[in-house]
Amino acid sequence: MTLTRLSLAQFRSWPRLDLNLGKEPLAVFGPNGSGKTNILEAVSMLAPGRGLRSAPALEQALKGKAAGWRIDATLGDHQIRTQAPPDQTRNVAIDDKTVPQTALARLVRVIWLVPSMDRLWTESPEGRRRFLDRVTLSLMPDHADLALAYDKAMRERNRLLRDQISDVGWYRALEGQMAEAGAALTRNRQSAIAAIMASQGTHDAFPAATLTLLAGEGHADDADAESIAARMAAMRPRDLAAGRSLTGPHRADLGATWGPQDMPAALSSTGEQKALLLSLILANARALADQPVLLLLDEVAAHLDADRRAALYDLICTLPAQSLLTGTGPELFSDLGSRARHLAVEKTDGKSGTVPLD
User: Fold this and answer.
1) How far apart are CA 129 and CA 123, in angstroms?
2) What is the pLDDT of residue 358?
3) How far is residue 272's CA from residue 122's CA, in Å, rounded to a whole number?
4) Please, what is the angle between helix 168-198 and helix 270-287, to 10°?
5) Helix (H) or strand (E) holding 221
6) Is the predicted pLDDT of residue 137 greater than 80, yes or no?
7) pTM of the model
8) What is the torsional sign of CA 93, 97, 100, 104?
9) Parent domain of 217
10) What DSSP assignment string belongs to 149-193?
11) How high is the pLDDT of residue 1?
12) Which CATH number do you get for residue 145?
């Protein structure tokens, strides 16, 4: 199932954009600020959530928060529309039927890599946890519903803790909901890690990694609902003092080591960290060989030498995925040659537009 059409209206810097796409990679290039990433962000909105920038819908409109935007896409035989009408939240329709955002996860898998993720291994656990959950969602669409259920119950429990409520019955009910959803979340994460490790390639330029679900003080690797509920009950006095839940899968972290010396990712060079991250992204796409996959690689050439860049393009062309890449100049994609379509963009008067290619 291929994304064959993408139409944008008032989205980010694009007053209008109509693209016809095919199975071959699309390389989008232009100067910084020309709107390249905005195209990838629009495609990322074909997945549940806030897209690759994690931006509120009202901030994505060209004309400001009081305006709106619309994205239309043709994916195989399906017509997708997601939009944020003026002063309204985002909504989704598939084949003219309004559906929850989570329905998108069952239709297409969207994977992305953006420059801010280059710091994944050296920043806080929250970013690595979000990365792991996006990978897990691509493999198990029910992960989104489980995360929503867990977060809703945790917000309610945290409210009780902040208000110093002592009613045991309320806590037991919410902790039971958190435990059931949390155990399933953890099992999904563990299964996703196993699937990614099994799908890693053997190319020297993109090393295979050993991945670990790090538990920390939150015991975030516990996949037994009864055990999770019992621990939350035991932790209530401490949680009341902190005003928040200190144990559970929301405290999980992702660990990665690679090479014969089991080098921690955080201690690797910038180039090695980027190569390791790309290795995981490529493995994620391979693990989804039986599903429609959109692979979005923003400024992907950053921190890659020429040989590694050429190796990456060779691997992309073998993936069971439809790929969109961005970069500042056409020379960055010369190794793709005729294997890809190329699109030049520019920005004038604050608005993006395409440039005809010879």
Assistant:
1) 11
2) 39
3) 13
4) 90
5) none
6) yes
7) 0.88
8) negative
9) 123-269
10) HHHHHHHHHHHHHHTT---HHHHHHHHHHHHHHHHHHHHHHHHHH
11) 83
12) 1.20.1050.90
- Please check the confidence at residue 19 and state whether its pLDDT lies above 60: yes
Coil/strand/helix, residue 14 = strand
Q: In the chain, at which residue ranges do the beta strands (DSSP E only) sit?
A: 3-11, 14-20, 26-29, 69-75, 78-84, 91-94, 97-99, 109-113, 209-214, 253-258, 263-264, 293-297, 322-327, 341-348, 351-355
What's residue 87's pLDDT? 84
Classify strands 69-75 and 3-11 as parallel, antiparallel or unpaired.
Answer: antiparallel
Structure tokens, 183: 């155990």
- Flag whether pLDDT at 174 surpasses 70: yes
Strand pairing class (293-297; 109-113): parallel
Helix, strand, coil percentages, rounded to 5, for the chain: 40, 25, 35
Examine residue 112 and state whether it is found in any structural domain, yes or no: no
Task: Report the SS3 class of residue 29.
Answer: strand
d(CA 236, CA 229): 11
Q: Categorize the per-residue pLDDT at 100 as very low, low, confident or very high, splitting at 50, 70 and 90.
A: very high
Q: Per DSSP, what are the bridge partners of residue 211?
A: 256
Amino acid at 200: Q
Q: Is residue 336 part of a domain?
A: no
pLDDT in tens, 286-333: 999 888 999 999 999 888 889 999 999 999 999 989 999 999 999 999
Q: What is the mean pLDDT of residues 132-142?
A: 92
Residue 357: per-residue pLDDT: 54
Please report whether residue 146 resides in a domain. yes
Average pLDDT score, the chain: 92
d(CA 151, CA 245): 11
Counted domains in the chain: 1
User: Taking residues 116-133, what's their average pLDDT?
Assistant: 92
- The Cα 263–Cα 273 span in angstroms is 11
* Portion of the chain with pLDDT greater than 90, in percent: 79
Residue 99 lies in a domain: no
Dmax over CA atoms of the chain, in Å, equals: 72
Q: Are 109 and 281 in contact (CB under 8 A)?
A: no
- Coil/strand/helix, residue 66: coil
